[in-house]
Protein backbone atom coordinates (compact mmCIF):
# COMPACT_ATOMS: atom_id res chain seq x y z
CA UNK A 1 0.00 0.00 0.00
CA UNK A 2 1.18 3.51 -0.76
CA UNK A 3 1.57 5.79 2.27
CA UNK A 4 -0.02 9.20 1.91
CA UNK A 5 0.59 11.20 5.11
CA UNK A 6 -1.51 14.33 5.36
CA UNK A 7 -3.12 16.65 7.87
CA UNK A 8 -6.76 17.58 7.81
CA UNK A 9 -9.99 17.32 9.71
CA UNK A 10 -9.02 13.85 10.90
CA UNK A 11 -6.37 15.44 13.14
CA UNK A 12 -3.20 14.76 11.20
CA UNK A 13 -3.44 10.95 11.17
CA UNK A 14 -1.33 8.98 8.74
CA UNK A 15 -3.56 7.98 5.85
CA UNK A 16 -2.98 4.84 3.81
CA UNK A 17 -4.25 4.96 0.26
CA UNK A 18 -5.60 1.43 -0.34
CA UNK A 19 -4.02 -0.22 -3.36
CA UNK A 20 -5.91 0.28 -6.62
CA UNK A 21 -3.96 -2.58 -8.16
CA UNK A 22 -4.83 -4.78 -5.21
CA UNK A 23 -8.53 -3.97 -5.58
CA UNK A 24 -8.29 -4.94 -9.26
CA UNK A 25 -6.82 -8.29 -8.21
CA UNK A 26 -9.65 -8.70 -5.69
CA UNK A 27 -12.12 -7.90 -8.47
CA UNK A 28 -10.75 -10.78 -10.54
CA UNK A 29 -10.83 -13.15 -7.57
CA UNK A 30 -14.43 -12.16 -6.85
CA UNK A 31 -15.44 -12.87 -10.44
CA UNK A 32 -13.86 -16.32 -10.42
CA UNK A 33 -15.04 -17.33 -6.96
CA UNK A 34 -18.62 -16.10 -7.16
CA UNK A 35 -19.24 -17.46 -10.66
CA UNK A 36 -17.68 -20.76 -9.61
CA UNK A 37 -19.88 -21.29 -6.56
CA UNK A 38 -23.11 -19.45 -7.43
CA UNK A 39 -24.94 -18.08 -10.46
CA UNK A 40 -24.65 -14.28 -10.20
CA UNK A 41 -26.84 -12.06 -12.34
CA UNK A 42 -25.90 -8.38 -12.47
CA UNK A 43 -28.70 -6.00 -13.38
CA UNK A 44 -28.11 -2.30 -14.06
CA UNK A 45 -24.32 -2.42 -13.64
CA UNK A 46 -24.10 0.25 -16.33
CA UNK A 47 -25.52 2.70 -13.77
CA UNK A 48 -22.18 2.73 -11.91
CA UNK A 49 -20.22 5.77 -13.21
CA UNK A 50 -17.36 4.59 -15.41
CA UNK A 51 -14.86 6.93 -13.76
CA UNK A 52 -14.51 9.15 -10.71
CA UNK A 53 -15.39 8.59 -7.07
CA UNK A 54 -18.52 6.65 -6.23
CA UNK A 55 -19.98 4.96 -3.18
CA UNK A 56 -21.80 1.64 -3.47
CA UNK A 57 -24.37 1.29 -0.65
CA UNK A 58 -25.23 -2.39 -0.29
CA UNK A 59 -27.81 -4.26 1.76
CA UNK A 60 -26.33 -7.02 3.92
CA UNK A 61 -28.14 -10.32 4.40
CA UNK A 62 -25.48 -12.89 3.40
CA UNK A 63 -21.80 -13.34 4.18
CA UNK A 64 -21.03 -13.33 0.46
CA UNK A 65 -22.56 -9.91 -0.24
CA UNK A 66 -19.18 -8.18 -0.41
CA UNK A 67 -17.44 -10.73 -2.65
CA UNK A 68 -20.60 -10.98 -4.78
CA UNK A 69 -20.58 -7.24 -5.47
CA UNK A 70 -16.81 -7.37 -6.02
CA UNK A 71 -17.42 -10.04 -8.66
CA UNK A 72 -20.30 -8.28 -10.44
CA UNK A 73 -19.51 -4.56 -10.21
CA UNK A 74 -18.02 -3.04 -13.37
CA UNK A 75 -15.16 -1.50 -11.36
CA UNK A 76 -12.92 -2.76 -8.53
CA UNK A 77 -14.31 -1.92 -5.10
CA UNK A 78 -12.59 -1.01 -1.81
CA UNK A 79 -14.88 -2.23 0.98
CA UNK A 80 -15.03 -1.10 4.56
CA UNK A 81 -14.44 -4.44 6.35
CA UNK A 82 -14.81 -5.01 10.09
CA UNK A 83 -11.47 -5.42 11.86
CA UNK A 84 -12.57 -8.80 13.25
CA UNK A 85 -12.17 -10.22 9.73
CA UNK A 86 -8.47 -9.29 9.66
CA UNK A 87 -7.29 -12.38 11.53
CA UNK A 88 -4.63 -14.90 10.58
CA UNK A 89 -3.65 -15.05 6.90
CA UNK A 90 -6.93 -13.37 5.89
CA UNK A 91 -5.75 -10.03 7.33
CA UNK A 92 -2.73 -9.53 5.02
CA UNK A 93 -4.78 -10.86 2.10
CA UNK A 94 -7.55 -8.30 2.63
CA UNK A 95 -4.98 -5.51 2.89
CA UNK A 96 -3.25 -6.64 -0.30
CA UNK A 97 -6.50 -6.53 -2.26
CA UNK A 98 -7.15 -2.96 -1.13
CA UNK A 99 -9.82 -3.40 1.53
CA UNK A 100 -10.21 -0.92 4.41
CA UNK A 101 -10.15 -2.19 7.99
CA UNK A 102 -12.62 -0.47 10.32
CA UNK A 103 -13.34 -0.68 14.03
CA UNK A 104 -17.15 -0.58 14.30
CA UNK A 105 -17.12 0.04 18.05
CA UNK A 106 -15.96 3.64 17.98
CA UNK A 107 -14.86 6.48 15.73
CA UNK A 108 -12.08 4.88 13.70
CA UNK A 109 -10.23 7.91 12.36
CA UNK A 110 -7.73 5.80 10.43
CA UNK A 111 -10.53 4.04 8.59
CA UNK A 112 -12.24 7.36 7.87
CA UNK A 113 -9.04 8.81 6.41
CA UNK A 114 -8.32 5.70 4.34
CA UNK A 115 -11.88 5.55 3.00
CA UNK A 116 -11.80 9.23 2.03
CA UNK A 117 -8.46 8.60 0.30
CA UNK A 118 -10.18 6.02 -1.92
CA UNK A 119 -12.74 8.62 -3.00
CA UNK A 120 -10.23 11.46 -3.34
CA UNK A 121 -8.24 9.31 -5.78
CA UNK A 122 -11.33 8.54 -7.87
CA UNK A 123 -12.00 5.04 -6.54
CA UNK A 124 -15.09 3.04 -5.61
CA UNK A 125 -15.93 2.65 -1.92
CA UNK A 126 -18.26 -0.15 -0.86
CA UNK A 127 -20.28 0.33 2.34
CA UNK A 128 -22.85 -1.78 4.16
CA UNK A 129 -24.80 1.10 5.72
CA UNK A 130 -26.69 -1.19 8.11
CA UNK A 131 -23.35 -1.81 9.83
CA UNK A 132 -23.70 -5.57 10.16
CA UNK A 133 -25.41 -8.54 8.54
CA UNK A 134 -29.13 -8.72 9.28
CA UNK A 135 -32.39 -8.65 7.36
CA UNK A 136 -30.79 -6.71 4.54
CA UNK A 137 -33.72 -4.31 4.31
CA UNK A 138 -31.97 -0.96 5.01
CA UNK A 139 -34.24 -0.52 8.05
CA UNK A 140 -31.53 1.09 10.17
CA UNK A 141 -28.64 3.08 8.73
CA UNK A 142 -25.51 4.30 10.44
CA UNK A 143 -24.43 7.88 9.88
CA UNK A 144 -21.10 6.96 8.26
CA UNK A 145 -22.51 6.66 4.77
CA UNK A 146 -23.96 10.19 4.90
CA UNK A 147 -20.65 11.57 6.18
CA UNK A 148 -18.58 9.99 3.41
CA UNK A 149 -21.05 11.07 0.73
CA UNK A 150 -21.42 14.66 1.92
CA UNK A 151 -17.74 15.12 2.77
CA UNK A 152 -16.45 13.72 -0.55
CA UNK A 153 -19.28 14.82 -2.83
CA UNK A 154 -19.26 11.33 -4.37
CA UNK A 155 -22.56 10.01 -5.72
CA UNK A 156 -24.17 6.97 -4.09
CA UNK A 157 -25.26 3.96 -6.12
CA UNK A 158 -27.71 1.72 -4.21
CA UNK A 159 -27.06 -2.01 -4.60
CA UNK A 160 -29.44 -4.83 -3.67
CA UNK A 161 -28.01 -8.35 -3.32
CA UNK A 162 -30.89 -10.82 -3.40
CA UNK A 163 -30.24 -14.51 -2.88
CA UNK A 164 -32.58 -17.42 -2.37
CA UNK A 165 -34.80 -17.20 0.69
CA UNK A 166 -35.36 -20.97 0.61
CA UNK A 167 -33.47 -22.74 3.40
CA UNK A 168 -33.10 -25.95 1.42
CA UNK A 169 -29.66 -26.76 0.01
CA UNK A 170 -27.77 -24.43 2.33
CA UNK A 171 -24.48 -25.76 3.65
CA UNK A 172 -24.02 -22.64 5.78
CA UNK A 173 -26.99 -20.69 7.14
CA UNK A 174 -25.54 -17.28 6.22
CA UNK A 175 -24.92 -18.29 2.59
CA UNK A 176 -27.29 -18.86 -0.32
CA UNK A 177 -27.43 -22.49 -1.51
CA UNK A 178 -24.48 -23.38 -3.73
CA UNK A 179 -25.12 -22.95 -7.46
CA UNK A 180 -28.28 -20.97 -6.74
CA UNK A 181 -28.96 -17.70 -8.55
CA UNK A 182 -27.99 -14.49 -6.79
CA UNK A 183 -29.25 -11.21 -8.24
CA UNK A 184 -27.19 -8.05 -7.81
CA UNK A 185 -29.25 -5.00 -8.78
CA UNK A 186 -27.54 -1.62 -9.20
CA UNK A 187 -29.71 1.49 -8.91
CA UNK A 188 -29.54 5.06 -10.16
CA UNK A 189 -26.73 7.19 -8.75
CA UNK A 190 -27.82 10.09 -6.55
CA UNK A 191 -26.34 12.89 -4.46
CA UNK A 192 -26.85 12.67 -0.71
CA UNK A 193 -26.24 16.31 0.16
CA UNK A 194 -28.63 19.24 -0.20
CA UNK A 195 -26.29 21.16 -2.47
CA UNK A 196 -25.03 23.55 0.24
CA UNK A 197 -21.93 21.56 1.20
CA UNK A 198 -22.92 21.73 4.88
CA UNK A 199 -21.53 18.99 7.16
CA UNK A 200 -23.33 19.93 10.36
CA UNK A 201 -25.05 17.27 12.46
CA UNK A 202 -28.42 18.46 11.17
CA UNK A 203 -27.23 18.31 7.55
CA UNK A 204 -25.91 14.77 8.04
CA UNK A 205 -29.13 13.66 9.74
CA UNK A 206 -31.15 15.05 6.85
CA UNK A 207 -28.82 13.34 4.36
CA UNK A 208 -29.27 10.03 6.21
CA UNK A 209 -33.05 10.34 5.87
CA UNK A 210 -32.75 11.04 2.13
CA UNK A 211 -30.35 8.12 1.71
CA UNK A 212 -32.62 5.71 3.56
CA UNK A 213 -35.59 6.69 1.42
CA UNK A 214 -33.62 6.11 -1.79
CA UNK A 215 -32.12 2.81 -0.64
CA UNK A 216 -35.45 1.47 0.60
CA UNK A 217 -37.16 2.43 -2.66
CA UNK A 218 -34.40 0.76 -4.67
CA UNK A 219 -34.67 -2.46 -2.67
CA UNK A 220 -38.43 -2.51 -3.23
CA UNK A 221 -37.96 -2.01 -6.97
CA UNK A 222 -35.21 -4.66 -7.08
CA UNK A 223 -37.46 -7.21 -5.40
CA UNK A 224 -40.28 -6.44 -7.80
CA UNK A 225 -37.91 -6.72 -10.77
CA UNK A 226 -36.41 -10.05 -9.68
CA UNK A 227 -39.41 -11.59 -7.98
CA UNK A 228 -37.42 -12.06 -4.75
The total strand number stands at: 9
Structural domains: how many: 1
What fraction of the residues are assigned to beta strands by DSSP?
Answer: 15-25%
Q: What's the architecture in CATH terms?
A: 3-Layer(aba) Sandwich
Determine and state the CATH class: Alpha Beta
Distance between the termini: 40 Å
**Count of separate DSSP helical elements:** 6
CA-atom Rg in angstroms: 17 Å
Proportion of residues in helical segments: 25-40%
Rounded mean pLDDT is 85
**Low-confidence parts:** 1-10
CATH fold naming: Glycerol-3-phosphate (1)-acyltransferase
Largest sheet: 7 strands, mixed
Structural class estimated from helices and strands: alpha/beta
Write up what this structure looks like.
With 228 residues, this protein is an alpha/beta fold. The chain has a single domain (2-226), classed as Glycerol-3-phosphate (1)-acyltransferase (3-Layer(aba) Sandwich), CATH 3.40.1130. Helix content is 35%, strand content 19%. The chain has helices at residues 20-37, 65-72, 90-96, 109-120, 144-152, 201-226, and strands at 2-5, 14-17, 39-43, 54-58, 78-82, 100-102, 124-127, 156-162, 181-186. Strands 3-9-8-4-7-5-6 form a 7-stranded mixed sheet, with helices on both faces. A two-stranded antiparallel sheet has the order 1-2. α1 crosses α2. The radius of gyration is 17 Å and the shape is globular. The N and C termini lie far apart (40 Å).
